Amino acid sequence: MLVLLAGLLPFAAPLAGQGSSAAPASERRAGFSLARLARVDSFYQRAVDREEIAGAVVLVLRDGRPVYERAFGWADREAGRRMTPSSIFRIASQTKALTSVAVLALAEEGKLALSDPVSRFIPAYRQTTVAVGGAGGGTTAPARRQITLRDLLTHTAGISYGTDSLVASAYAAKGLGSAAGFGWYTANKDELICTTMERLATLPFVAQPGERYVYGYNTDILGCVVERASGMPLDQFVRTRITAPLKMEDTHFFLPPAKRERLTAVYTRGSDGRLVRSPDGPRGQGDYVDGPRTSFSGGAGLLSTARDYARFLQMLLERGKLDGVRVLGPKTVDLMTTNQTGALYSPNGEGFSLGFRTLDQPGALGRVESVGTFGWGGAYGSQYLVDPQEKLVLVYMVQELPGGSGTGGRLPILVYQALEETRAK
Questions:
Q1: For the whole model, what pTM was predicted?
Q2: What integer pLDDT is reported at residue 135 of this predicted model?
């Protein structure tokens, strides 16, 4: 049975039926067919029953109001804890969106400019190098220009996570790349993120600045930039400028011990293909409760709930303001959510903005969302998208590492097939 909510989120209000020839008002909610929306239930319950996932939370908003929310399966199967809408997840790269907003907020104050070289805040980046030649060796060449903040926001700085064969051994020797879980993990490091990012600057990158899209430590570097430009630790800046004003009360870099029992366990595939609980450590449960609580990763460090993250996305959907609280100016959000990389990210109708993948052509790669939709996901399998035309926010939370079940990728078509009242331009 699907769960339909009114007023569960602080920005939600009761939904009124809207006229439609497709189904009686009693069978619709915010333009959605309730019968067709129930297909979301069937798909994700089946995924749990087949042990494709241990559990998940799905949340859909339209016009800032919850249309659908459901928790499936287990938060911790071994402990017998069921998944709930308030379960807390490691959101990994979904952290990048908050750090990118932090950078844009500082730009609005004149404390930095997107054209600034990173070396203005981290001098170690004044002269960087690029690996050339064969795997695991070869030579390095000087970068042809300095890396800018815009390069980092768009992942066009040439900086990877150091797990590619060209640089893997050098990165591992410095405690990065394969020595940091799958590359992006820093929660167990008892050193400040700026210290780690200064060490990164001594390593070769894999492409020249501006040459191509390379996903990697870019937003972790930006986290250090936020600290240097604002004069406060990244966790404090994010809390005071984003999560506290938006009432995101369950979003943290490290989880308060009192919330330990709400943290969802991470699962993976065993050698026999069966779903098993992941081990402790960087490639499993991580150090998000009992770790040193020192390294605030702007690229992958946050934990959150579906409801909290939906509030953040709703703020972006409303062009920087939610419940009377303005985080960014409307034109800044427009800039942030518009393709800034041309065809570097993809030649097939998708782009990359200042922190998000964007949909630029109707039906690109078989996608059903509206042009202008933006979103991303996290290494634990979570995903989100925002469709400004349809006023939709979709959040899918799961904990699988590596995040390979593909169940999150099925959510858009499952939601949009139930949308009977569209808002075509």
A1: 0.93
A2: 58
